[in-house]
Amino acid sequence: MLFGDSLRRPDAFAESLYKQSSDFDVVDRVMEMAAERGVPPARLALAWLLHRPGVTAPIVGATKLGHLEDALAAEQLTLSEQEMARLEELYVPHPVLGHE
């Protein structure tokens, strides 16, 4: 087995931390709203992040030109207060790992 493959193996502990069913509700909402706006989900998610107070430069991981194009286009995507609330409505905060 290659080293990289070991990082992709199912891990019950990691799944309990990172794969909560409520997270998929948020993803579904982003997908729904992106389809309504006719934009890629990543662009909508980045636009939401850019509208958050205190966020000045989100970190974008890009492996394809389209990723960069979506990141740049997100800056031009304006979200209303209602859209922001709709995106945030289903989010359930997670505890910070390593802290009690």
Structure description:
- The protein is mostly helical.
- It has a domain at 21-88.
- The protein is 56% helix and 0% strand.
- It is built from six helices and no strands.
- It has helices at 3-6, 12-18, 21-37, 41-50, 65-74, 81-88.
- The model has no long low-confidence stretch (mean pLDDT 83).
List the helices and strands and how they pair.
Layout: H1 3-6, H2 12-18, H3 21-37, H4 41-50, H5 65-74, H6 81-88
Global outline: globular
End-to-end separation in angstroms reads 36 Å
Portion in helices: 55-70%
Order of helices and strands: HHHHHH
Give the integer mean of the pLDDT values: 83
Strand percentage lies at under 5%
Unreliable spans are: none
Question: Summed up, what is this model?
Answer:
By secondary structure, the protein is mainly alpha-helical. The chain contains 6 helices and no strands. The N and C termini lie far apart (36 Å).
